[in-house]
Design a protein that fits this description.
With 194 residues, this protein is mostly helical. It has one domain: Endonuclease III, domain 1, CATH 1.10.340.30. It contains eleven helices and no strands. It is globular. It starts with 11 loop residues before the first helix and ends with a helix.
Length: 194
């Protein structure tokens, strides 16, 4: 898989970590709920700086109370620091137990097709169907994942130019388009049904 530069957070160091560390990217995706996308995906760099590592074995082995405390430091890693710290540690433990500590193995080990990668992602703690589809779309659209059938597996998230998720963010302009798409979807969901 190619290493392409991601441009999600607007912070060069945070984006560099996401571009080069598979577990950091997976963690950013996990954190992407109930906070701005940039905040979520900047989280792995904050964790790495505060914990001294973003390696799955180090994160999984960190004292849970101390790990939650580093999530609460200002600026906080997430608006729900306690529960999200526990989720990140659960994710790290799953990567250690099931993938030998190598997050990229989830989408590379055994040359899996798109549906298999989706199944593996959905088996991770904190990754429901939608989050798994968006992450697979991110791998396919921006990180050169060439698993057969990935576009079909992710549904509309695989469409070019849909600006539906983080998979479509490549610069500030595309971030604004994704945000507008999400706001329109929320407004439509709140609108009274005819």
């Amino acid at each position: 898989m190619e290493h392409m530069a991601l441009h999600i957070t607007g912070d060069a160091a945070a984006d560099e970590l996401l571009s080069t560390d598979a577990f950091a990217l997976l963690t950013g995706m996990l954190l992407d709920q109930q906070v701005a996308m940039e905040t979520a995906f900047a989280g792995p760099l904050k964790i790495a700086e505060r914990a001294g590592s973003i390696e799955p074995s180090a994160v999984a082995g960190y004292d849970p109370e101390a790990f939650a405390a580093l999530f609460k430091q200002t600026p906080a890693v997430h608006r729900y620091p306690g529960s999200m710290a526990a989720r990140v540690q659960s994710l790290a433990q799953a990567v250690v137990d099931d993938w030998g500590g190598d997050a990229a193995a989830i989408w590379t080990q055994g040359d899996p097709d798109g549906p298999e990668v989706l199944k593996r992602l959905k088996a991770l703690p904190g990754f429901g169907d939608q989050k798994a589809r968006i992450f697979l779309a991110l791998l396919g659209k921006q990180l050169g994942l060439d698993a057969s059938g990935w576009r079909e597996a992710v549904g509309h998230y695989g469409d070019d130019g849909c600006f539906a998720s983080v998979a479509d963010i490549t610069d500030p302009e595309s971030l604004a388009k994704v945000r507008a798409t999400k706001q329109a979807a929320k407004a439509a969901a709140k609108a009274p049904k005819a």
